[in-house]
Structure formats: structure tokens, C-alpha cells
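Reply to dn_fold:

You asked what the input looked like. This is it:
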Amino acid sequence: MNDSLPGLREIQMFVAVYETRSFTAAAAREFATQSGISQHIKQIEELLGVQLFDRQKIVEPTAAGTVFYGHCLQVLAANAKALQSLDTFERGLGGEVRFGVTPTLASHQLAPAYLRLMEHNPNASIAVIDAPSNMLIDMVRANELDFAIIPSISEPPTDLATTVFAATPAFLVSANNHSGGFEHGQVIDFDKLVGLKLLAPDSREHAQWIGTPVDPGSGPGPCYQLDAVLATLDLIRQSEWMAILPGLLFVHSFNASPAERDFKLNPFSGAGLTLELLLVQPPRSTPSPLMLEVIETIRGITEEHIQRLSAFQSGTY
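and this is what came back:
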């Protein structure tokens, strides 16, 4: 007996004869000739040193043929599984991309984009960090990140390539049970902010958000600084404090029922407030195909969410 099995093609022919009990039917199934099938079975028997079929009257498998058939099915199944395991390596892009985002995108846009990227590019390595803007800028500058997406409120770095990534509406955010009198979705004027307990990440950012129409620092109300998104949301949830925040943080809750949401969102009248997000990259860098796909995938998810927020802002949601 030979110490190796026949090839996969010969095994397939043997299985066809075993299952059809006919050289003619097996030939039709395997797109071969009857004489070709018969010759291959004879060669297999000579290779293995055993008779697999009794050809006296009809084609009947011998005991050896039945045992061999069971193992042949396992071989064919293993072959199919091995080929299937390689299917994913034929899809999508390869390579590595490292990038950073702030909580504005990390809260709701990053996960669906990441899932889509993993599905379409199973061979790629994609690493993400959620950090403050200044840290992300330093990491891009040190070539530790391929790019970062940061709010435009942050001081744009002059030594890096910076382009507008997207623009999100901003809303006045308060607890769902806030006693201030604003109804969820109600459009408000900027002068309504005077005297409110309004949080801001820092004084420069507060001025940039509010601009000249209202300066809470000069009004009778207090102005505290809190540059931590999760802490800000938790404080709003538990108190009478309010904040002006990008709508992308609330894309899944603006149209929820009062029982299901924690916050009231109020758009501003007129042109409202808009926060631009900036794409920051090393200067003169050439993005890889994978990096371009990552950027466009995140941008696509972000634009979908911004459209929903804009509908809420205009009262057409």
C-alpha cells in the first residue's frame, strides 16, 4: 500500500461513484467520461492496494470502500474549511493605520465606523486612541499617529496639515428634569443664556462658542470651567448646570422619549452654533489607501448623524 492518499480530484471521483453506485452517473456528475472515471478508480485501488468496489453485477462498495468513503468525506470537508478560512484574506485593504479622536466622535461615530472598517478590511490593523486635542496634536507631530480629528476650537497647529473634516450643530444641553423652563427641542435665543449656570471647557473656548452676543462672564450668572466630557455630562445630569455641546454627542437621544433620555437639547435661533471638526495630519504626507478609506468611512458615518441633527435643529425630525 502507498503511504499517501490519492489527490483531491481522485477522491471526489471516488465519492461520486460511491454515492451514485454508477460509473456513468459519476461521470456526468464530475463532468468526466465513464472510461475516465473507471480508470481513475482502478488507479486508486492499485495505489491503496485494496478493492473499493465489487463490479460483478452492479457497482457496490466493498467493506474497505465504505471505510475509505467516510475518511474521504472528512478530507473533502477539511479542504473546504481550509479554503473558506482564506476567503477573508482576499478582501479589503491591508496595512496599518493609527489615528486619534476626541470624545466628540468617540461617543457614537467611532464604533459603527470601526465595525464597518473591520468587515470590509479584515486584514488591516487599525488602532484608535481617544484623547484631548493637545495630546493628539503632539502624537501626530511625533508621527505616533497618522492623523487626528479634533474640534476647531482647539488652536490649529501651524506646523501640521489641517483641513475641515465636518461641521456639527451645537445645542444647549440640560438635564431632562431641569427647572429652567426650556422644552426639549425648543429654539432659544442667545440672550437667554445670561445668568444661567453654564459650564465651559475653558474661557477661550467659551468666548469662541458664545461670541459677542452674550458673554456670561460679564453677566450676573456664574461661569465655571470643566474640560472633561464625561464629567460634564454627569454634572448636567445631576444638577441645574447646563452646557453648550456638539450635537454628535447626543445623536441617539435627541428624538428619544422623555423616559428614555437624560438630557434636554435646545437649538439656537438664527444661524445657531456650529462646531467644525479638523483633520490634522503630518505635512507633506502621502495617505495610504487604507488611511483614505478610514477617513472616508468615519466621515460618512459622521455626515449621516449630522443630517439627523440638522433635521432636529430645524424641527423636521
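Residues 180 and 208 are 24 Å apart (CA to CA).
Hope that clears it up.
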